[in-house]
């Protein structure tokens, strides 16, 4: 009898937790050149209520210098020293300040060179910019 009660309790907890689970949504995909550059990603209106962002490397090796989160009210948050991402790795989850996220500015470069890219030794880096939307509180 206790086993049945425990199973019912666990299944009901799992159902309630899945209702609150947040999912990552892809905002943009960027191809990273071999020289240091800064790219701006505009966030769509429906995705501005983000709680966190992260970057996922889908190709090559990317050296992340800085991320700047620009909010709709004009404030910003800078994150430095993000390190190197290789194919299949993602950055840590970065919390977004309260308010609407207007844009994300990424400063980065791809490790390698154009000459090595031509012969197939290295590929330009590719990143996916992901946001986790805030849970609706009804």
From TrEMBL:
The signal peptide stretch is: 1-21
The protein's UniProt keywords, in alphabetical order, are: Signal
Q: Superkingdom of this entry's organism?
A: Bacteria
Protein name in UniProt = Uncharacterized protein
């Amino acid at each position: 009898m206790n086993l049945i009660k425990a199973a019912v309790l666990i299944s009901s907890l799992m159902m309630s937790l899945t209702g609150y689970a947040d999912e990552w949504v892809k905002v943009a995909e960027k191809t990273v050149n071999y020289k240091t550059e800064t790219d701006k990603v505009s966030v769509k209106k429906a995705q501005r209520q983000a709680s966190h962002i992260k970057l996922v490397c889908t190709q090559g090796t990317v050296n992340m210098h800085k991320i700047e989160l620009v909010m709709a009210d004009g404030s910003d948050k800078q994150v430095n020293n993000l390190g190197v991402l290789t194919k299949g790795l993602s950055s840590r989850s970065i919390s977004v300040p309260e308010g609407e996220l207007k844009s994300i500015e990424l400063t980065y470069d791809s490790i390698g060179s154009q000459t090595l890219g031509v012969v197939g030794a290295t590929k330009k880096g590719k990143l996916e910019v992901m946001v986790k939307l805030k849970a609706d509180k009804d």
